[in-house]
Amino acid sequence: MPAQPNSDEPVAADAVETDAGPARAGKAASRAPERRCIATMTVQPQDAMIRFVLSPDKQVTPDLAARLPGRGAWVTASREALEIALKKGAFARAFKAQVKVGPDLITQTEQLLVRRALDLLGMAKRSGELISGFEQVREAVREARPACLLAASEASEDQRNKVLGLVKGIYGPQAGETVTNRRLPPVADCFSGDEMGMALGRERVVHACLKQGRIVHAWMGELARLSGFRRVWLPGWQPVDASGKGASGHDIEDTMARGAGDDPPDSRALAKSTANEETE
C-alpha cells in the first residue's frame, strides 16, 4: 500500500485521494500545501478547498479547520464541486468504503463557513480591529483605508452609498488616472444585520469595517471559501484578487487560538462531537 502524505505536505496530481490525518503540531510545510479535489480531480492550494472526514458510523463530515483525526478527502470550496462529488459517489471512492451522506451536507458546509467568518468578526471586535456603526465607520474611513467594509444584506441603499461615496472620494481614482484602481477596499454584503449583531454582541449591526491587522488575512480567506456557496461581495467591490486566496485551515485556527488564548475553537468543539476512524 503506497505511503499516505501528511496533510501539511504538498501532493502530486497522481497522488492518493485521501490524506493520512491532520498536520502534526509544530510541523511546517516547506511550501503551500496542495490537494487533489475528489470531484474535479484538479490539484489546488489547500486554502481553496474543504476537508471532509468520516465519523465512526461512516458519516461524511466537513472539517473546515482541517484538524479532525482520521483520513481526509478534499473538495474544492464550491457548491458546484460538492454537488459533483455527491453525484459521482466520490466520497465512497476516495475513502474506499460505504459512506453515509446527509441530505443537507452542502447546507451544513455553508453554515459552518458562515459561522467561522462571523466568529472572526467577534474576535476582530475584541482585538480592536473592527469598527461598527454608520458614523463610526465613516470616521474610520477618513482616518485610514480599511481592509474590508461590511454592509448588512438589508442595508439601505442611501446609507450604503454615503459610505461608499466617501471611500471613493478618498481612495478612488484621482483626476487623470487611467489605470485600474487598486486602492478601494472590498465590500462584503453577505450577512444580515442580525447575523453580524449576534457575532458582535449587539442587537443588530448594519455597517462595519475591518482595519488592517492580523485578523483580516484569515477573514478574507474564509470569505473566499464562502464565495463558492453564496454571493459574498457587493458587485463592483470585489477584492483585487477575485479568486480570494487567503488563509484558511491551520492559519485561521492559529489566529483564533492566539486571540482566545486557548485551543482552536473548531478543533475543540468538533473533536468532542465527532471522533473519526482511519480507513484501511
Characterization of this structure:
With 280 residues, the protein is an alpha+beta fold. The protein folds into two domains: 18-108 and 264-273, YlxR-like (Hypothetical Cytosolic Protein, Chain: A), CATH 3.30.1230; 113-259, Ribosomal protein L30/S12 (60s Ribosomal Protein L30, Chain: A, 2-Layer Sandwich). It contains nine helices and ten strands. The protein has a four-stranded antiparallel β-sheet. A hairpin with a 5-residue loop joins β4 (49-54) and β5 (60-63). The chain is elongated, with a radius of gyration of 20 Å. The model is unreliable at 1-15 and 242-280 (pLDDT under 50).
CATH topology of the largest domain: 60s Ribosomal Protein L30, Chain: A
Q: How many β-strand runs? A: 10
Overall number of domains: 2
Helix content: 25-40%
Uncertain runs are 1-15, 242-280
CATH evolutionary superfamily of the largest domain? Ribosomal protein L30/S12
How many DSSP H or I helices?
9
CATH class of the largest domain: Alpha Beta
End-to-end Cα distance:
10 Å
Features of the shown structure:
elongated, 60s Ribosomal Protein L30, Chain: A, disordered C terminus, 2 domains, 9 helices, four-stranded antiparallel sheet, 280 residues
Question: Outline of this structure?
Answer:
With about 280 residues, the chain is an alpha+beta fold. The protein is built from 9 helices and 10 strands.
Task: Give the helix/strand layout.
Layout: E1 18-19, E2 34-36, E3 43-45, E4 49-54, E5 60-63, E6 72-76, H1 79-87, H2 90-95, H3 105-126, E7 130-132, H4 134-143, E8 148-151, H5 157-171, E9 187-188, H6 193-199, E10 207-210, H7 216-226, H8 250-260, H9 265-273
Parallel strand pairs: 8-9
Antiparallel strand pairs: 1-6, 2-3, 4-5, 4-6, 7-10, 8-10
Helix pairs in contact: 3-7, 4-5
